[in-house]
Amino acid sequence: MTVVVAAAMLIMASCERKPVMAHAQFKHLPAVGWQRSKPLMFQPQYDDSTATYDVMLAVRHSNSYPYRNLSLVVDIVDTDSAVNRRRLNVALADEYGNWQGGGFGSLYQDKVTIATGLAPVQASAVKVWQVMSGCDTLHGVADVGVITVPK
Q1: Is 125 exposed, middle or buried (0-12, 13-18, 19+ CB in 10 A)?
Q2: What is the rounded radius of gyration, in angstroms, for the C-alpha atoms of the chain?
Q3: CA-CA distance, 113 to 146, in Å (whole number)?
Q4: Alpha carbon distance 29, 24 (integer Å)
Q5: 38-89: per-residue pLDDT in tens?
Q6: pTM to 2 decimals?
Q7: Residue closest to 60 by CA, chosen among 75, 40, 77, 45
Q8: Separation between Cα atoms, residue 115 and residue 112, nearest integer Å
Q9: Which of 10, 51, 106, 126 measures 20 to 30 Å from 18, CA to CA?
């Protein structure tokens, strides 16, 4: 009898729903800089196709980054290839030149939410361009990433 109860408990425990986790995917930028003509492509990861997610963009930059902000174009592409384009101006420093965001040493990380409550089919790919005015090759940005967080 105890073997049957133990087996039933084991089966029920295996049917428990696993927690839906946040996922991050980063692309390291070359030391020669991020060219305006070279977008970064991401394929966000999702644990549960029935859940909704917030999609965030993270930027890691060094002390050598020469600007207060970062201008980006972000395309969120759904599974039918429809594109939802967003233009972002990410403030990396305040008016006094103090870096915002977290970090230590010479790298800082900032993140900004680019979409909320999306189903995985609504964001199967994310494409990111730097569009800094008068800057064909941007220096000082180390990594760019996409983070998906379940709602």
Answers
A1: middle
A2: 20
A3: 10
A4: 16
A5: 999 999 999 999 999 999 999 999 999 999 999 999 999 999 999 999 999 9
A6: 0.84
A7: 40
A8: 9
A9: 126
